[in-house]
Amino acid sequence: MARTADDFNKNRLRSSNITVVVSIALVLFLLGLMGLIVINAKKYSDYLKEQLVVNAFFDQNYDAKDSLKIAKNEEEAVKKIQTIAAVKKAVYISRDRAVEEARKSMGVNTSAIFDENIYPASVEVTIKPEFTDSLKINEVMKQLRTVPGITEVNNDTDAQKVYTGLNKVLKWILGFSLIFLVLAIVLINNSIRLKIFSRRFIIKTMQLVGAKRRFILIPFIKESVILGLIGAAIGLLAVSGIWYFFTSMIEMPFVQDTTEYFWLAVGVLFVGIFISIISTVVATWRFLRSNVDDLYYS
Q1: In what order do the strands lie in the sheet with 87-93?
Q2: In this structure, are residues 125 and 54 in contact, taking their beta carbons and an 8 Å threshold?
Q3: For residue 49, which of 225, 167, 176 has the smallest C-alpha distance?
């Protein structure tokens, strides 16, 4: 009979541990997946923002005899543009190159209608992603207009609207991620509390026979660390498998920098272990402070 009761307790403990591990793995899987979405959404947003090009045009009205002087001034202007904090890249477009690009875009092979340099020299300025909102881009355009030789500055207003919309989407994604983190904490905490609740009589019995609170807590904390590690590892493996399958299907590797993936994995492991430990300590401490009679009504 004693062996049967002992087997029953072992099976119940094993079942409780499996439930906690599955709960942690499932929650951290979803949390890790959300983290991957946030990382790649941010990177893709930055990539699109880097496609925003501001065109700064030079004055095309000058005397031919001053062409060397104008060329030198334009070279100095490009160097000055490159020193602006918001500028990621500045590409000089000569008058000849502007005509050639216009010919290609119009599908005209003959130079008959391009007998003169009708297009001014310009600079294609790529703006850093953090400066692509409407207020900052306007400030950048003002700085470009102050550069000697620049007579006109234009940017794509339609693209600007797209980038503004991307910022709003990213804020929503980050908001949902924070909500999901809170849900993860609540769900893992509840799973741990149920596990500790099923062993409340064991905790109280150990205390009644003279065991110190720290002596009782340590085994539960060690067990919570192990369960948190196992759950986090399973969750990360599931995330890696799903993400590998997804990127293979669409043939797009997304973020190439594995450093962010590494820190995401570390973050998921930390969340799993940290929440498990805190939940275990709080739940165990609650029963250590309670009376014997309270155990039947908890």
Answers
A1: 87-93, 122-127, 53-58, 150-155
A2: yes
A3: 167
Model-level pTM greater than 0.85? no
d(C-alpha 156, C-alpha 147), whole Å: 20
Where is 67: in which H helix or E strand?
helix 67-82
Distance CA 129, CA 43 (A): 10
188 φ/ψ angles, rounded to the nearest 5 degrees: -65, -40
Decide if 155 contacts 141 (C-beta within 8 A): yes
Residue 252, both tokens: 């797009």
Q: Give the three-class secondary structure for 145.
A: helix
Rounded CA-CA distance 298/291 in Å is 10
SS3 of residue 126 by DSSP: strand
Q: Which of 273, 294, 262, 205 is nearest to 20 (CA)?
A: 273
Structure confidence by residue, pLDDT tens digits, 138-193: 788 888 888 888 888 877 655 556 666 666 777 777 777 778 778 777 877 777 77
CB 224, CB 277: distance < 8 Å: yes
Neighbours of 251 (CB within 10 A): 6
189-222 burial, b at 16+ Cβ within 10 Å, e below that, comes to: bebbbebbeebbeebbebbeeeeeeeebbeebee
Q: Which of helix, strand or coil describes residue 53? A: strand
Cβ contacts of 11-17, under 8 Å, gap ≥ 24: 12/198, 13/199, 16/194, 16/195, 16/198, 17/195, 17/223, 17/227
- Tokens encoding 253: 């590797």
Rounded distance, CA 8 to CA 209, Å? 24
Say if CB 48 and CB 139 are below 8 A apart: no
Q: State pLDDT tens for residues 116-138.
A: 566 778 888 888 877 777 677 77
